[in-house]
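Onboarding guide, step 5: your first structure request.
Type a short instruction followed by the sequence, for example:

Predict the 3D structure of this protein.
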Amino acid sequence: MENEAKRLKEIIRLDTELATVQDLDILLERILTEARQILNADAGTIYVKDGADLVFSYTQNETQRKRLPPGQKLIYSTFRVAINKKSISGYAAATGEYLNIPDVYKIQSTSPFQFNSSYDRVSKYKTTSMLTFPLKTNMGEVLGVIQIINKKDAKEKVIPFRDGDEIVCRHFAVTASMALQRAQLTRALILRMIQMSELRDPKETGPHVNRVASYAIELFEHWANKRKMPADEINKKRDLLRMAAMLHDVGKVAISDTILKKPGRFTDDEREIMKSHTYLGARLFVNKQSEFDEVASMVALTHHENWDGTGYPGSIDIRTGKSQQKGTAKPLKGEEIPIYGRIVALADVYDALRSRRVYKKAWTEEDVLHEIQSLSGTKFDPDIVEAFFACLDVLKSISARYPDD
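The system replies with structure tokens like these:
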């Protein structure tokens, strides 16, 4: 009874906390973490519906994580699963039914679905018990599937999921589905703003901004953990930063096509006009209604400031674009630049260098890494460069998750 009461409190806390998460990717990661903890499970996966498929979006595996050096994350590849009755996740999505399987290796041959053991063979991991629930709207539409894997008892022995776990997971799936719908709407609204920019500047694509935002939160998390920032604060700030980073160049909607799409070098006057996209973007969030507006304004304004004080736009009034002092605006330097701006600066440059554009080829990985290292202490905060190289493998996996169309 004491354990059940404790779990009920955790579920109530989870309902409240999920309602505060706004970014889709952050939400998916948080859903999986909380579900595993509440059900005392070793691993899990979330799939999100995309057309006739389920897209493998997030996975966690505590056993494999413990094999890694401290601070490192699991690297995984994205893939798709057809929504049909042949696979476990596909069956849950196709029928809207949940599955509680005590041992996936003992599924009867007459079952319409079977377990694909290829991942176990490659990873040297043994999947046994599995609880699979569809994430559905209140109208019955399937949004995705959550799989919780290998429930453990007090002695860390893998055991089947109980009937009580099904009740908990059903409640959890309903709560998660509501939060997922809200997060998908938020993401859609942000991407529509990005599409407005893309109509003006072909470089501002959905994949580009998703990559920059994903790079940014990995850099922030490493930076914050090194400073022993509380986990709750990290989670909150990651949520805000990811959405804000997607909108870092939204001010380009106000820049003339003749400048944005010019194939050659800018004149001095054109360059100054181009620089104005920083404060024009920040100006969109000037009537702050939430902490997100504050962070989005900060990122838009400062992601072109340089660590050595050679960036732009400097100390200006974003309402007027004029210097806050007499004369030319003084560029920000070092820790005068907000941490979010310092992070997005590196994330944006990394993606720009390694991406092909109409006016340039993609740089080689070796050249990109050499360039970033050489700019440590001048263009970039040395601590952010250190974070970049510490989580480089994760950054590479992110680029594969959001390929250019």
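Each response can be followed by summary notes, for example: The chain has a mean pLDDT of 87.
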